[in-house]
Specification:
Length: 751
């Protein structure tokens, strides 16, 4: 064992620490300042001279400026400065084929970019022209490349982008045949990789052309050519296939596509389309399951608590304020709104059919929604249930359903109270309407519909100034509340503040360009301001929107008549008569027009129609007989007067004309009619004397009241009643009987 042990020699001469202070004096930096040779080398090129003997490079690797055959004493010139300045660069030959190809390729790329930009700006025609120009130049580029280089050097990416952009622009301009031909060129070229997915675009074009069988064929071909790793693309194609099956009525195939999507990657659109497909086939249980699947689709958005500051840290508050309304937050809101729209629409669709009654169906949907992430939609569904009761004309059930929300949170309570106020207003129960309008406003002071309804109830009571204040407050809370803006215009008309009313209606016209009600109100305000030319101009715009509205046409005729333009007045009165031949005022004007122009025989048909509309009014039949008499047809006039006398034996005017005609013709009945006429005139005198004595006994005040009532009764407004209530319900057409009263209304949908 000891044979491997080596002991250190015990000698006193060896020092263990000897040699540590010994070093080469060359490395003594402390004495460099006193080293004459070093200082000379630093100041001059003395240190760079080659050593005596062989010239050698400074490093092991031969550097620029050195050669093996360098002479002793040659100057160190690694940059070759001793050779003089470098020769000038060779001039660029712009006429060379390579340079021409590069310039042409650059131009093609620029044209493709300009085409895409024009498409993005909405100038589809310019985008197509640029795409065509790029295609022409790209073909020239290919021919030039083939002449200079081998075919392998052709820029396939540029060719692909040019063709793809051209096909896209053709499709955007609805030139589907050209787009399909261009896509075929790309798809059939085996040199283009991944061109098969463009068959999706071809399928989309066939779908637009309603060639559903070919659309499905190309979608399936694209699906076969897209690898399974592109899961999202495959899901979108499957969704297109399902939608196409729905359009063809093949609901079972559509169900298979959407069921596959919901099992692989559930999304809102596929879930909603699945419900539609089950609704089409009438499968109640599957509708319920599909609705539950739709409810379970994850939204993948942050909770609202993220945007609430947990503390008073100013830096955190600034960050939250910055992201509270950024693009990502807006996208989250849009996604949530879309989800709520799909769920609400699906619930309204299936509720009436999944159970024995729509009320039970709504209750099932409400329970499912309450157990999901969309719990706040349950109240909106309840309000929609009330609206469904309204559509079924079950007013009491609608009111009962809405009254259940009186103890809910403020937002829902305000929405329900707004609708209750609206319902009672329609029933002319203004006290109840005002009560619920107050409840709605107190629950949510910033609810523009509630404020508008409150203004309506005040308007109905005749307090126009206060109504205007409520409408103004509604506009301050929501500047896009068109109902409040319209109603404040009506209020200003009632207050005779015509300039302000006109300003309101012109603002509303800028928002609702084709609203017939707004156009009429502007024309009416100009008429009240005694500006018939402007009134006519706006009525012309009105009939361009509703060309068959008889009231607007008759109003135009009235304005032209007041201006003395009888021919234009006749044109519009006649058009009004064509669309609504029962307007007595129009019939009377047309008959009088033909009498004034000495065409009495043409006036007969209008007065005959008036006598059919008002058979108890003797004046129309007298006008018919008068027309026969004026046109010289005395026998027909005599027969007509006799017929009138049989129906109205106490009519003095008829007997007078009978006496005159019989006298002119020389008939024996003249004495009989004269006797009857004298008796009637005597009875008339006695009646007038009695009325006069009665008036003398009753006093002058009563006489004045009766005279006033008589004057009102004889006045006929050519536009019908001018009662203008504030807006209550939006209407999609203008009734001919109350055109001037039409107003837009507050929306019945929940807030």
């Amino acid at each position: 064992m000891m044979q491997n042990v080596h002991l250190a020699p015990e000698t006193d001469e060896d020092d263990l620490y000897s040699g540590y202070n010994d070093y080469n004096p060359t490395y003594d930096t402390e004495e460099l300042e006193n080293d004459t040779a070093f200082q000379q080398a630093v100041r001059t090129s003395h240190g760079r001279r080659p050593p005596d003997g062989v010239a050698r490079p400074m490093t092991a690797v031969r550097a620029a400026g050195f050669t093996k055959a360098a002479l002793r004493g040659s100057a160190f010139d690694p940059l070759g400065q001793s050779r003089g300045p470098a020769p000038p660069l060779e001039a660029k030959n712009e006429d060379s084929p390579e340079e021409k190809i590069r310039q042409l390729e650059k131009k093609v790329n620029e044209l493709v970019e300009e085409s895409c930009v024009a498409n993005g700006c909405g100038d589809l025609k310019l985008a197509l022209e640029k795409a065509k120009d790029a295609g022409r130049k790209e073909r020239v580029l290919v021919r030039q490349r083939e002449q200079v280089t081998t075919p392998e050097n052709i820029n396939l990416d540029l060719t692909y982008s040019v063709l793809f952009n051209l096909a896209s622009q053709y499709s955007a301009n609805e030139m589907y045949a050209e787009a399909l031909n261009t896509y075929q060129v790309i798809v059939k070229n085996k040199m283009f990789s991944n061109a098969g997915r463009l068959k999706v675009n071809m399928g989309n074009i066939y779908l637009k052309q309603r060639n559903y069988s070919k659309a499905i064929k190309f979608y399936r071909m694209a699906l076969d050519q897209i690898p399974s790793v592109h899961k999202e693309m495959r899901i979108k194609i499957l969704q297109n296939i399902g939608v196409t099956f729905i359009k063809t009525g093949q609901y079972s195939d559509a169900i298979n596509s959407f069921e596959h999507i919901m099992s692989m990657a559930p999304n809102l659109k596929a879930g909603f389309n699945l419900i539609l497909s089950y609704f089409a086939v009438g499968d109640q249980e599957k509708m319920k399951k599909a609705f539950q699947k739709l409810i379970a689709v994850p939204l993948e958005i942050d909770e609202d608590d993220k945007y609430i500051s947990p503390n008073d840290d100013p830096h955190t508050n600034l960050v939250i304020e910055a992201i509270k309304n950024d693009h990502l937050r807006q996208m989250e809101r849009e996604r949530k709104a879309m989800a709520e729209k799909y769920i609400m629409t699906a619930a309204k669709l299936i509720a009436p059919v999944i159970e024995t009654s729509f009320a039970v169906g709504y209750d099932w949907c409400v329970e499912v929604v309450k157990a999901s992430q969309y719990v706040e939609l349950a109240n909106d569904l309840e309000i929609n249930k009330a609206i469904t009761y309204l559509r079924q004309k079950d007013f009491n059930q609608a009111v009962e359903t809405l009254k259940m929300f009186e103890k809910k949170d403020s937002r829902v309570k305000s929405a329900a109270a707004t609708n209750l106020s609206f319902l009672y207003y329609l029933e002319n129960e203004f006290a109840q309407a005002s009560s619920y309008a107050d409840l709605a406003v107190n629950s949510d002071r910033y609810n523009p519909s509630a404020l508008t309804n409150k203004g309506n109830t005040v308007f109905a009571n005749g307090d126009y100034e206060k109504a205007a204040e409520f409408y103004k407050e509604a506009l301050r809370n929501d500047s896009s509340c068109t109902e409040a803006l319209y109603n404040i215009g009506l209020t200003y008309k009632k207050l005779n503040r015509l300039d302000e009313a006109l300003d309101c209606f012109l603002k509303l016209h800028a928002i609702l360009r084709n609203s017939a009600q707004v156009l009429y109100q502007i024309a009416h305000v100009y008429e009240l301001m005694e500006d018939p030319n402007q009134a006519i101009e706006w009525l012309m715009q009105l009939i361009s929107v509703v060309p068959t509205d008889s009231r607007a046409l008759s109003k135009l005729g009235e304005l032209y008549d007041s201006e003395g333009d009888k021919s234009q007045a006749f044109q519009y009165y006649y058009e009004s008569y064509r669309y609504f031949p029962s307007n007595i005022e129009v019939i009377e004007w047309l008959g009088a027009y033909y009498i004034d122009t000495q065409f009495c025989e043409k006036a007969i048909q209008y007065f005959e129609r008036a006598s059919l509309i008002q058979p108890t009014q003797v004046k129309w039949q007298l006008m018919v007989a008068s027309c026969f008499r004026r046109s010289g047809n005395y026998q027909k006039a005599l027969d007509t007067y006799k017929d009138i006398h049989r129906k109205f034996p106490e009519n003095v005017e008829c007997l007078r004309f009978l006496v005159r005609l019989c006298t002119d013709i020389g008939l024996k009945e003249v004495q009989e009619y004269a006797t009857k006429l004298k008796r009637l005139e005597k009875m008339k005198e006695i009646r007038e004397q009695r009325i006069k004595s009665g008036r003398d006994g009753s006093g002058g005040s009563r006489s004045k009241r009766e005279g006033s009532a008589g004057s009102d009764a004889s006045y006929v407004d050519p536009l019908g009643p001018q009662i203008e209530r504030p807006k209550t319900a939006a209407k999609k057409r203008i009734d001919e009987d109350d055109f001037a009263d039409e107003e837009l209304g507050d929306d019945l949908l929940p807030e």
